[in-house]
Design a protein that fits this description.
Blueprint: E1 2-8, E2 12-18, E3 23-30, E4 37-43, E5 52-59, H1 65-84, H2 89-102, E6 106-110
Antiparallel strand pairs: 1-2, 2-3, 3-4, 4-5, 5-6
Helix pairs in contact: 1-2
Length: 114
């Protein structure tokens, strides 16, 4: 279930997803002052104090800031659906990154695969 969604200044958004198989935080934010947004995925299944970054998604340059925030919500819905269907966070992220690559929306990778 999507348990929270908060907007931040300068085009940032953080959403938390808690399902029977995983808990994760999705953070869309700029990587720097003159840079565009990207997405970091953090696993907090062992508690927020033990959260760890597990994946990153870099959006295609063809997406503007508003489209990136809209896509953030679609990402949250995708992960929520996967987790509620019994997928692990890793499986849900692999499915998401395959779809993102297929439609050239961006590039995603698990951090342990970089």
């Amino acid at each position: 279930m999507i348990t929270s969604r908060k907007n931040y200044r300068f085009g940032g958004r953080v959403t938390t997803v808690e399902t029977p198989t995983f808990c994760c935080m999705i953070s869309t934010a700029k990587e720097g002052i003159f840079k565009k947004q990207s997405v970091m995925f953090s696993d907090f299944s062992d508690g927020m104090e033990n959260r760890r970054h597990v994946a990153k998604l870099v959006y295609s340059d063809r997406l503007d800031s508003e489209a990136r925030l809209d896509f953030h919500d679609q990402i949250a819905a995708h992960l929520d659906g996967g987790g509620m269907a019994g997928q692990t966070l890793r499986e849900s992220l692999h499915d998401l990154f395959a779809a993102v690559a297929a439609d050239e929306t961006g590039f995603g990778a698990l951090l342990d695969e970089l």
